[in-house]
Every structure is written in C-alpha cells, then in structure tokens.
C-alpha cells in the first residue's frame, strides 16, 4: 500500500451513476479512504422513515380536479403534486390580500342563505336526557 501522501483524493461526483462508473473503472488502491466513516457508524446515524419537515409541514387533503389538469401535471414527471402546490401559492397569496366577500348569487340562482332558510329542519335539537321517547308497546301492554 502507498504512503498517505501519495494517495489520491476522490473527485467530486455530480451523480450516483458517475460515482458508480468511477468505482467500476478506477484502481481504488490508489485513493485515500481515511476521511470515510465506518459503515456501522453511517448506518447508526441514519434514521428510518421520512425526515422531519420542520415548520413547513404539509397537510393531507382530498381535492377533486379535472382529469386534464391532473394529466397535465403528471406528464411533467415526479414531483407533480408539489408543482400543483407551487401553482396554487400565488393565487392563495392574492386571495389572502383581498377583503373577504360574502357569497353573491348569480342572476337566476338562489343564494346559499335562501337555500338554507328553505331547507326542512329534521332534528333541531337532540332530545334532553331523561325524557321519555315514545316507543312501541311491549307484548304484555298490547294484550292487556
């Protein structure tokens, strides 16, 4: 084995494929491995699962989108859901800066308030505890 001063340093790799090609083609006995941590230490530092996202945690939502919109984003490849988020962010910022307006019905449509006012109320309040509910008579009550 060569002395430490004669050993070469590893070049920086731009991709995993480039590093794999280098390992396959190079004579590794000419290179200095002293800066490398033992494999057991590297595995011990590695934690299983998804890394923490910090303050920018995202929330899971279910959202219905038109099929053409989904296909357009999916066709851009991996990370398409993040790109939908990026496309919605400017709109969300614009909406946040505008004053809140109440629902305004278009001509010929009913407003949400009028629709709700006409809707039948089935159970306005739950029954109070201890109040008897009407029930079917038992067999003994029917015979008597």
Give a structural overview.
- With 144 residues, this protein is mainly alpha-helical.
- Among the domains are: 1-48, no CATH class; 58-95, no CATH class.
- Helices cover 38% and strands 0% of the residues.
- The protein has helices spanning 16-25, 39-45, 67-74, 80-97, 112-118, 139-143.
- It starts with 15 loop residues before the first helix and ends with a helix.
Concise synopsis of the structure shown:
With 144 residues, the protein is mostly helical.
β-strand percent reads under 5%
Beta strand count: 0
Computed CA radius of gyration, to the nearest angstrom: 34 Å
**Biggest beta sheet summary:** none
Low-pLDDT regions: none
- Bin the helical content: 25-40%
- Assembly status: single chain
Distance between the termini: 108 Å
Helix segment tally: 6
Silhouette: elongated
The average pLDDT is 76
* H and E string: HHHHHH
The structural class is mainly alpha
List the helices and strands and how they pair.
Blueprint (H helix, E strand, L loop, with lengths): L15 H10 L13 H7 L21 H8 L5 H18 L14 H7 L20 H5 L1
Descriptive terms for the model:
0% strand; 144 residues; mainly alpha; 38% helix
């Amino acid at each position: 084995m060569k002395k430490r001063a004669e050993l070469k340093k590893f070049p920086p790799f731009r991709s995993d494929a480039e590093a794999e090609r280098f390992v396959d083609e190079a004579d590794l006995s000419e290179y200095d491995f002293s800066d490398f941590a033992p494999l057991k230490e590297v595995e011990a530092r590695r934690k299983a699962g998804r890394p923490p996202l910090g303050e920018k945690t995202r929330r899971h939502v279910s959202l219905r989108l038109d099929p053409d919109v989904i296909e357009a984003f999916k066709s851009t490849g991996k990370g398409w859901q993040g790109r939908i988020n990026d496309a919605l962010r400017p709109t969300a910022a614009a909406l946040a800066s505008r004053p809140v307006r109440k629902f305004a019905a278009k001509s010929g449509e009913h407003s949400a308030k009028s629709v709700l006012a006409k809707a039948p109320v089935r159970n306005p309040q739950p029954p109070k505890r201890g109040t008897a509910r009407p029930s079917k008579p038992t067999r003994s009550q029917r015979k008597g």
